[in-house]
Design a protein that fits this description.
About 20% of the residues lie in helices and about 15% in strands. By secondary structure, the chain is of the alpha+beta class. The chain has one domain (about 1-205, about 255-405). The strands form 3 sheets. An 8-stranded mixed beta sheet has the order 9-8-7-1-2-10-11-12, sandwiched between helices. A two-stranded antiparallel ribbon has the order 3-4. Helix 5 links the parallel strand 7 and strand 8 (about 285-290). The chain starts with 19 loop residues before the first helix and ends with a helix. Residues about 1-5, about 225-250 and about 400-408 have low confidence and may be disordered. The structure holds zinc ion (2 copies). One of its GO terms (molecular function) is double-stranded RNA binding.
Amino acid sequence: MTAGGARSAEKVGRRVSTCAFADAIARVSIAAHDAAVASLPDPERARLSSGQTVLASIVVRDGRGGGGENDRARVRVVALGAGTKFMTSSSIDSDARGVRVRDCHAEVLARRALKRFLYAQIDIARARRGTVADARSCVLERDARSNRWSIRPDVTFHMYTSSTPCGNATVKRWARGAKEVFDDALDESTPPPDAKTHEKPSFGSVHEGQLAFTYKRDPTALEDDGGEIRERGGGGGGDAAAGAAVHITGRLLSCSDKLAVWNCVGVQGALLLCENALSSPVYLASVTVGRKFNRAILRRALCCRMHRFRGTDAISAAEDGTAAEPRSRVFALNHPGTMCTAVPFDVGTYAPGEGANFDRADALVWWEGRDGGETRELIDARTGSRSFPRGDDDISGGLFARRRVTRT
Ligand SMILES: [Zn+2]
Ligand SMILES: [Zn+2]
């Protein structure tokens, strides 16, 4: 774990894991992060190896295993992001074309990386049409009904985040925490069977902001004390603690809120549901958290507070205007499994009298690509520009976008 040697923020003594699966997800994610950092050339590697950050990833659980008859399901990291910062309001204002990466919180970057992974997967699936020779790593299959691509039924997507998502999930009110108990009946490739059954929570404090969406606090914006949710003691660190739930002072939704939206409409974004792409939305099967986990609060924040979301039934031909058959593009509220892990991402200790130092503006994005091409980027989270690799411009995704355009 040399690449992570400078991380030094976690007290792990009292942390308990939910199960071996949660720990396996954390371990492969941290290893993938460290490998991505170690693969960078020197000035960048040195920068990324200092200070603290938050890591989030998307792990695929593939029921097909590695190929053998008695193979257990495999888990592999396909996307990850590390970062704690976002663009200031004034930088956002100056980005008239909307080409900068506004939000470099880890969960947002991991989801950005996942979208790139899915694009690469569609490329793989198209290239192998009619053959399965190189299909081991492909998570897609042809959906004959819609003539699009769908996720194979034995594949699920699992998020890991080294710290609980900022916003609602960090508001320790309106719920009681129960102590986690490690379930040692489950092996490393088996998620808890009841992971997706969430008890109906009580929403008796809606007017105090129990279900409210919140914004990432922009430290350069004027303080607005009209908000009702404010994390106590959240001053000073600004956005850096990735945990401040503050009302209205910024413009970017908290990660809890974004995750809540993704649990309604999927993590794939609108473009990947277009013609020739995915047949249905992609939902997270579970979320595993390192620091500051509270199951009841996490469930409220990520999914259960969206209980009024109606979803859509298959879009009818009349509405859609194109298909003769109703499409299977169905949205429905997803309740992911919620797990915690005691596997530490930050391995050292604080210097006496100091807290974690989250000052680093570099954010890392990595994804599993198609064929040895560049699949990582560094983004300067304050400006939203790509700082590595350097190309003709500094727009994240620029290289990727050009590649796609020239091919079609
Ligand atoms: Zn966040
Ligand atoms: Zn739920």
